[in-house]
């Protein structure tokens, strides 16, 4: 699964002022990512405001993204949720052509036990024809998938090939890296953690800020993969403040504002997410100028 190493980006979903999907801008954003060196794209992760999209809208976005990319870079589809049977059906119905794997978030809101998380992913793994990337993001799901559960899944299911980790727990990362099967991969789920996680042995990042700054994020991941941490550290420090500003009022409204400032005009979001405040806008403008 070299397709999901180094830098991937969780694409935003552009909306028109009336709330409909802005496919023209999505196409421009995809071209921007490819031209600036992003290694792979994730269609409909959390940053894509997936929770506010209908099933039909998701299908249209996946189809459009596949056709626009046209095999130029690998594609990952975000298919996750807290209703296991529904996810299983969605995976069975998913048109896999053009996609290399599925990113599936640990169940949110329900707050299952570790056994519940294991059984959830077991059921998904048994029906998926594509490799699966686990996604642990306790800040959103309300529960942490422990290293023991991750390792159990990695060892028992060959089509579970990686985990996107956004727990911020470096002891947990280290345990996964120490005890994992040889080909199982750890991927950073937090932009600021990319360098230290790759120093430990992670293979890359699925980025948010990469929507707006793909060249910087791709270069950072490449330098880390090459072991040039002195050069990577410069980019890491350069991106810290603007990354914080992207999340201070929620994701993806911060990075969508940056894209608007860059001429993409896509800071429209769907409720319950709202646009960022004028104060945060001013801070982002200042930081963009410095970058």
Counted by DSSP, the helix tally is 12
* Assembly state: single chain
The SSE order reads EHEHEHEHEHHEHEHEHHHH
Shape: globular
Give the N-terminus to C-terminus distance in angstroms: 33 Å
Give unreliable regions as ranges. Answer: none
- The overall strand count is 8
Concise account of the structure shown:
Helix content is 46%, strand content 13%. It has helices at 23-35, 55-69, 84-93, 114-125, 138-141, 147-156, 170-179, 194-200, 214-225, 229-247, 253-261, 278-290, and strands spanning 6-10, 40-43, 75-78, 101-105, 132-136, 160-165, 185-188, 204-207.
Question: Could you please describe the fold and organization of this structure?
Answer:
By secondary structure, this protein is of the alpha/beta class. It has one domain (2-228): TIM Barrel. It is 46% helix and 13% strand. The protein has 12 helices and 8 strands. The chain has helices at 23-35, 55-69, 84-93, 114-125, 138-141, 147-156, 170-179, 194-200, 214-225, 229-247, 253-261, 278-290, and strands at 6-10, 40-43, 75-78, 101-105, 132-136, 160-165, 185-188, 204-207. It has an 8-stranded parallel beta barrel, surrounded by 6 helices. Strand 2 (40-43), helix 2 (55-69) and strand 3 (75-78) form a beta-alpha-beta unit. The mean pLDDT is 97.
